[in-house]
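Hi all, posting the design record for the shared folder.

TITLE: backbone redesign
STEP: 1 of 1
STRUCTURE INPUT:
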């Protein structure tokens, strides 16, 4: 029984580089193999499997990998497909991640009028997500023909093989390039970390817990800033309230000053210019905002 943890991520595509970056920030460095499918972890006993994102749910179920990062859209589609065939499917979500945000949307040709979801009755809808699409249409009481395609869904209407599509939209540029417009939101999605339903050996569970702590640290750091400023002692309470996501800041005396102090705080939410302007308005000066590199709660 191996005591190494295997993580599956997308080999190339929307989630690939962000997933690698996340693991890198967790301090895992890999020996990249020539076939590029399996990378050996050098700094932690955590290995990488680089595969097609659509295959990751099946790999988790089969225990080919212990954990995997994939879009919620892909995991949910796999869940529905499996449930239809063999009953309930366990694919526990360990963490929702902060990248890969997109939505699964219905899009129609720009020139086509669209008033409500009932306009989709008797239409041919092309998609790579037939189960999620069917569930949405059933909920809306719409009867349409779903055409399952594994790729290039966006060109189906111009080829005449479908009337409209259900596809992922992130920036919207694919839809624009194909003269399609979004009319309904089927689901919102982002990358998430899933666990295999197979039981994990105790030593691997320890390793997974360690990895999760680091992932939480990385996710938190993304927004976090270390803020330093000078402030009138009388405005301390107001200042603390204005610092986004800060708890009990450190207050330090300033040499030769009695009514002004230095305030240091970790802000765990985004710090915007508006926050700094508001701080200045109540007497803060010498405001510095510094990036936080690592954090362990
Ligand atoms: C999705 C979708 C579109 C594109 C939309 O593909 O199928 O092609 O992204 O992005 P945009 O709104 O920014 O133009 P994805 O990268 O998920 O590839 P996959 O379906 O092959 O995994
Ligand atoms: Zn895919």
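Okay, here is what came back for every position:
SEQUENCE:
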């Amino acid at each position: 029984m191996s005591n190494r943890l295997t993580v599956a991520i997308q080999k190339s595509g929307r989630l690939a580089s962000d997933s690698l970056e996340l693991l890198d920030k967790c301090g895992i460095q890999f020996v990249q193999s020539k076939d590029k499918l399996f990378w050996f972890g050098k700094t932690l006993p955590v290995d990488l499997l680089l595969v097609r994102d659509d295959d990751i749910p099946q790999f988790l179920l089969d225990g080919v990998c212990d954990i995997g990062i994939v879009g919620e859209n892909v995991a949910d589609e796999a869940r529905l497909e499996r449930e239809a065939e063999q009953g309930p499917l366990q694919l526990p979500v360990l963490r929702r991640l902060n990248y890969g945000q997109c939505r699964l949307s219905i899009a129609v040709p720009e020139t086509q009028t669209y008033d409500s979801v009932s306009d989709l009755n008797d239409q041919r809808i092309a998609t790579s997500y037939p189960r999620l699409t069917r569930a949405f249409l059933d909920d809306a009481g719409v009867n349409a023909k779903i055409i399952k395609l594994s790729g290039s869904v966006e060109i189906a209407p111009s080829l005449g093989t479908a009337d409209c599509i259900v596809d992922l939209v992130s920036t919207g540029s694919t839809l624009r390039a194909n003269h399609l417009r979004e009319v309904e939101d089927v689901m919102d999605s982002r990358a998430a970390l899933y666990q295999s339903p197979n039981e994990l050996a105790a030593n691997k569970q320890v390793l997974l817990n360690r990895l999760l702590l680091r992932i939480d640290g990385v996710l938190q750091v993304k927004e976090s800033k270390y803020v330093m400023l000078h402030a009138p002692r009388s405005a301390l309470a107001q200042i603390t309230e204005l610092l986004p996501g800060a708890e009990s800041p450190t207050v330090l005396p300033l040499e030769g000053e009695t009514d002004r102090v230095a305030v240091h705080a970790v802000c765990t939410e985004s710090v915007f210019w508006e926050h700094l302007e508001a701080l200045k308005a109540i007497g803060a000066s010498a405001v510095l905002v510094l990036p936080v590199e690592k954090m362990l709660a």
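COMMENT: The longest helix spans residues 202-223.
Let me know if anyone wants the other runs.
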